[in-house]
Amino acid sequence: QVQLVESGGGLVQAGGSLRLSCAASGRTFSSYAMGWFRQPPGKEREFVATISAGGGLTYHGDSGKDRFTISRDNAKNTMYLQMNSLKPEDTAVYYCAAARGGPSTARNEYDYWGQGTQVTVSS
After folding, report:
1. Pair 47, 112: CB distance under 8 Å
2. Confidence of residue 54 (pLDDT cuts 50, 70, 90)
3. What percent of the chain has pLDDT over 70?
4. How confident is the model at residue 24 (pLDDT cuts 50, 70, 90)?
5. CA distance 121 to 40
6. What does DSSP say about strands 78-83 and 58-60: parallel, antiparallel, or unpaired?
């Protein structure tokens, strides 16, 4: 089993940057593909980015393409999401998730979820 804890959210002005972290418990972090999702107020949870277990394969959704970068450090059991040029529409609760299978854009492919961290971007 994997427990996930997100951190790094907060209030930032438009154009600013944040780096989210997802700390995982357990010895098997490096065997899981990981993903970031977000849920804007009043909307469905949506895919942001995913990374393979070894970190060699990444895919970013349209919402953060060219602005967000997913990465991981398996030695630290931690995944990151670097977010630059933030926009008010990036305001959401951001969740990290772990998948036994390969990297995926689909929520139902993920087996474990964190509690989320709030990101608020002011205009």
Report:
1. no
2. very high
3. 100
4. very high
5. 11
6. unpaired
Question: What gap in Å lies between CA 4 and CA 15, rounded to an integer?
Answer: 28
Mean pLDDT along residues 71-91: 97
Nearest to 86 by CA among 38, 25, 28, 32: 38
**Burial class of residue 110 (count of CB atoms within 10 Å of its CB; 0-12, 13-18, 19+):** buried
Phi-psi map region of 118: left, alpha, beta (phi>0 left; psi -120 to 50 alpha): beta
The string of DSSP letters for 66-103 reads: TTEEEEEEGGGTEEEEEE-S--GGG-EEEEEEEESSS-
Strands lying side by side in the sheet with 68-73: 4-7, 18-24, 78-83, 68-73
Phi–psi pair at 15, nearest 5 degrees: 90, -10
Residue 78 and residue 18: Cα distance in Å, rounded? 16
Contact 44, 107 (CB under 8 A): no
CA dihedral for 43, 104, 59, 5, sign (positive or negative) = positive
